[in-house]
Design a protein that fits this description.
With 293 residues, the protein is of the alpha+beta class. It has three domains: 53 residues, no CATH class; 69 residues, Roll (SH3 type barrels), CATH 2.30.30.100; 156 residues, no CATH class. It is 49% helix and 14% strand. It has eight helices and seven strands, in the order H-H-H-H-E-E-E-E-E-H-H-E-E-H-H. A five-stranded antiparallel beta sheet has the order 4-3-2-1-5, with no helix packed on it. It has a two-stranded antiparallel ribbon with strand order 6-7. Helix 2 packs antiparallel against helix 3. The longest helix is centred in the C-terminal third of the chain and has 33 residues.
Amino acid sequence: MMLDTKALDAYYRTLADLELLKLSAEGGLTEEAERAVRSELARRNMTPDDAKRHFAPEWLENLEAGTVGVLTLEGGERVTAEVAGLNEDSDYLNVKVLSPGGLSRAGSLNDLSISLDQIVSLEVQPHLKEQWPFSDPCQDRSFSSSRFILMTAILLCMMGSSLIFFLFLKNKPYGIQEASIIFYTLGAAISTFASSSNRFGRDYPPFKFTCPAVEPQIPRLLGRHLGFLVALLALQTALLAVRLRLPDWWNVENKKGDTPFDAAFILLCFGLLSVQVWTNRRLLDRAHREFSA
């Protein structure tokens, strides 16, 4: 073994710098040969990273931004990703990782920079994005004029027409309940299907009406919405019925004309809406995972 090591050291000393760098970049050496190459590189004040900069791996040739494929890393991990670009100065490949087991609703695209020396190979798969779950329209963040118009119309109706209904109906029997149905329905629709973010700054993709995982759930969502409307009307009717029985301070108006009862009334209604939206999005998220499976 000692003779072999000495022979390797002697042989690598005879190689020119470029020959030694190419040998290191190609890899496939035995453990003893790898140590001998690294030792010789160090003696010449060079590193394996220098080899990779001089001799790019074969998979890196003709690589373009937008290429989709499966990266095999040194530890054997396989990552499905879309190439975003190559940082030549630091020898890092910038990619957008695609969730391999079904797109996660907690953000399916993750920006990642991977050192070139950690990548063993790249298997290009140009048609991968045409397949599910990568073809899921809910992951498409590109601007859609028709969706924008629809969501804007819902938002304007929720803010404008609902206010008008409250002004005209609030003094009539069950007027508040009738106006609430409109506001609540529009709020549930836009909050369920629009993109959102949580308090930690994480963005959640929108749900598209035309998505094959979403469409079958529309009747179920409508049925659930009717159930929540019944709960809303029951809650509001009960609150209004007990209003006059509450202590006087519940109905004392502030400078803006609002009362503690009004605040509690609105808070409870929005709480019910939040529960519906949360359960709706969980339902659609589960539908995506089941569709992927």
